Amino acid sequence: MKPLFSSFRIRFSFVALLAGISASAHAAEPLRIGVPVGLSGANSVVAPGVVQASQLAADEINAAGGILGRQIVLEIADDASGAVGAQKAYDTLVFQKKVDAIIAMETSAARNAALPIVSRGKVPYIYTSFYEGRSCNRWMHVNGWVPEQQVAPVVDHFMQERKAKTFFLVGSDYAFGRGMLKFTRAYIEKQGGRVVGEEYLPIDGSDWTPVVSKIRSANPDALISSTAGGGPNVSLAKQIKAAGLSMPYGNLAIDEGTAKTMGDTAVGMYMSASYLTSIDTPQNRKFLDGLKAKFGNDAKTANEFSGPQYEAFYLYKAAVEKAGGLDPQKVVQALSEVSFDGPRGSVKMDRQRHAALTMRLGQVQQDGSIKILQTFDQVDPGAQCPDLK
């Protein structure tokens, strides 16, 4: 009996050892976060900065021990800035790579195409781009601004300080462009102003000549545009400048990095943003110093896209820790309850899965910097998803 007992004990110890190794291996499995972004298409101008912000956040979190002891592995995918590319990217990330979460700055066309895939895969999703508002899904939270937060500073400044009464609106012909300008028109008219023209080009359009001619003929007191971020912003601004149009110009889709690459073309342009590099706080200095240290001369200018992307990793980390694990439903619930004090200030996505944000009205200066003209603390996003449970 003794040899039998010894044999049993050896086998038991061996099984226990294997179980321990298995548990250890499981505990050390990486946590995969999908980052679909427009590496090609309209967003290709701004996508590199979003990727860098993701890499910086992942490195910082990993260096501090990861998330519940698990290291972050990024899965970067090109959504081609549109619906078809997003469907391919999300299918790969959700069903092949089996990511634990998605943190993404994308066009509205890409986001709308991706949401059914996110729902089927039951993957927590933080959308980090500013957008036209009222996109609601039980798996998605948003930490970028919506029209209720961004439009008023520009329109109010033009009407009160520049005495503008008539406006011309220009946009890219998709959900973001039309959604933003629908809200802008309503706000202008509510404030007693008048819209004398509204024109659109396809999201990949670059020849604004007919639109510029209509702006010249209408001769508005102010111009406001809402195009796809990146390429369309640049082409429209250049053609407006070349035409010699000099009325106050508010761009609802420009980011600081793109403005700086435009040189003289962007000088004088007005923008309303939740993030600007000139925010003078320890958290923003840490973010900027981190980008410089990691990427050196290749670091992209931090902007309205990369700032929220960076913060979203820390919001996800806090949610997983609050949930005590990666259960998707628990993580999604926790995302509405956690906050992070980052480059833009304190951000908490507790307003129907959107966030109150401090907004800054800025104007592009001769040296490419953005001068903050006015700050609006913790602007509420308004009713975005009242029926979302």
Structure description:
- The chain is of the alpha/beta class and 389 residues long.
- It has 2 domains: 31-145 and 278-355, Response regulator (Rossmann fold), CATH 3.40.50; 148-273, Rossmann fold (3-Layer(aba) Sandwich), CATH 3.40.50.
- It has helices at residues 2-27, 47-63, 83-96, 108-121, 147-160, 175-190, 209-218, 231-242, 256-261, 282-295, 306-323, 328-335; strands at 31-37, 72-78, 101-104, 125-127, 140-142, 166-172, 194-201, 222-226, 249-251, 270-273, 339-342, 345-348, 357-364, 370-379.
- The strands form 4 sheets. It has a 5-stranded parallel beta sheet with strand order 2-1-3-4-5, sandwiched between helices.
- Helix 2 packs parallel to helix 11 (306-323) and helix 3 (83-96) packs parallel to helix 4.
- The longest helix has 26 residues, at 2-27.
- The model is unreliable at 4-26 (pLDDT under 50).
Chain-wise SSE layout:
Blueprint: H1 2-27, E1 31-37, H2 47-63, E2 72-78, H3 83-96, E3 101-104, H4 108-121, E4 125-127, E5 140-142, H5 147-160, E6 166-172, H6 175-190, E7 194-201, H7 209-218, E8 222-226, H8 231-242, E9 249-251, H9 256-261, E10 270-273, H10 282-295, H11 306-323, H12 328-335, E11 339-342, E12 345-348, E13 357-364, E14 370-379
Parallel strand pairs: 1-2, 1-3, 3-4, 4-5, 6-7, 6-8, 8-9
Antiparallel strand pairs: 10-13, 11-12, 13-14
